[in-house]
Write a structure and sequence with these properties.
It is built from 4 helices and 5 strands; from the N terminus they run E-H-H-H-E-E-E-E-H. It is of the alpha+beta class. It has a 5-stranded mixed sheet. The radius of gyration is 13 Å and the shape is globular. The mean pLDDT is about 95.
Length: about 100
């Protein structure tokens, strides 16, 4: 898979050092993957969830560092592209306001 907006991940790692190792590993795993569905994603990340946002689209949500953070991405399996969208704390994610912006 191709990861779009990799600098976003670097920035999130700088802002949240506790998540840096996870984000680096996630990026490497995704770049080596050939995911075709959520089922494929869950082989590597069993807790990944598909969440419908206000636009009607579905995004993938990854629990980071024992649910301390959430990484939100849009995966286009047919094109083998993952777009990084948001990196939120658990408290920010729980407010659900992020769904309206996507």
């Amino acid at each position: 898979m191709r990861v779009v907006k990799e600098p976003f991940l670097v920035g999130a790692a700088k802002d949240y050092p506790k998540a840096a190792a996870y984000l680096d590993t996630w990026r490497k795993v995704v770049k080596a993957a050939t995911w075709r569905s959520l089922a494929d994603v869950r082989q590597a990340y069993p807790n990944a969830d598909a969440v419908r946002v206000r636009s009607g689209r579905t995004v993938l949500v990854f629990n980071v560092c024992g649910n301390t953070y959430r990484l939100i991405v849009a995966a286009h399996f047919n094109r083998q592209i993952v777009y990084t969208l948001r990196f939120l704390t658990h408290a920010e994610y729980s407010k659900d306001t992020w769904k309206a912006a996507l």
